[in-house]
Design brief:
Blueprint: E1 8-24, H1 27-36, H2 39-52, H3 63-70, H4 75-82, H5 92-109, E2 124-140, H6 143-150, H7 155-168, H8 175-182, H9 187-195, H10 203-221
Antiparallel strand pairs: 1-2
Helix pairs in contact: 1-5, 2-5, 3-4, 6-10, 7-10, 8-9
């Protein structure tokens, strides 16, 4: 079979967290700061669990929901924030707007919530996630090469191509699905990978799930 004209270039990432110096003690302050902070801050507080605990697979907690529930004791709002399905969002901008709208709507219907405030030391401290993208030596020009390299790359590489590049670079799909569909014309396989719920898998489970799908495609179609 003819090789892909555009190879898939695997990258990895180094991750750092930085304090922004911003903090909120009330819901009104949280909404105001949420409108101003960089997208890397929204990303950190909705994906921190996945970044720090890539080998554990319960639903990732939402820092905003945790603070609202545990510190302000607004359980109803906490549940609304926790129920936001981050998988459905293709950009940080959309996710930011959803969080702000959820809090703002709650304040309109629950005016007493505006009087709640966090004690000193219990404020919500805004942190941002800083990533450095590093090229690897791996490139794939076919499904077989793609599958073989998937077994070699680090969890950080998988994390970047599945999670980070899609949200932080405002892409509609993850890097793997984009390449499979646009370059190899593997639309069905790309869709199968895109439909995997990455938030209920560890990185290793996600790696194996993707490999199984690619192997099945190779076997059934004789691709190489």
């Amino acid at each position: 079979m003819e090789k892909a004209k555009e190879p898939f270039k695997f990258v990895t990432r180094l991750h750092l967290t930085e304090l922004t110096g911003l903090k909120a003690s009330t819901l009104q302050e949280m909404v105001r700061i949420l409108r101003e902070v960089p997208g890397s801050c929204i990303y950190h507080h909705t994906h921190r669990f996945l970044q720090q605990h890539q080998h554990i697979s319960p639903e990732p907690p939402n820092d905003f929901a945790y603070w609202v529930t545990s510190i302000l004791v607004e359980e109803d709002l906490g549940e609304r924030l926790a129920s936001i399905d981050v998988v459905q969002f293709t950009s940080i901008r959309q996710l930011r707007e959803k969080i702000i709208k959820t809090i703002a709507n709650f304040l309109q219907t629950h005016p007493s919530a505006s009087k709640r405030f966090a004690e000193a030391g219990d404020e919500f401290y805004f942190v941002k996630s800083v990533s450095f993208i590093i090229p690897t030596k791996y490139e794939a020009t076919s499904l077989v090469e793609f599958k073989d390299i998937l077994r070699k790359i680090t969890p950080d590489s998988i994390y970047f191509h599945i999670f980070e590049s899609r949200l932080r670079l405002d892409k509609k799909e993850n890097d793997f699905s984009n390449w499979l569909e646009q370059v190899l014309q593997e639309k069905e396989l790309a869709g199968q990978i895109a439909r995997l719920d990455p938030y209920t898998h560890t990185m290793e489970e996600l790696r194996e799930a993707i490999i199984r799908l690619v192997e099945k495609r190779i076997t059934s179609n004789g691709k190489n």
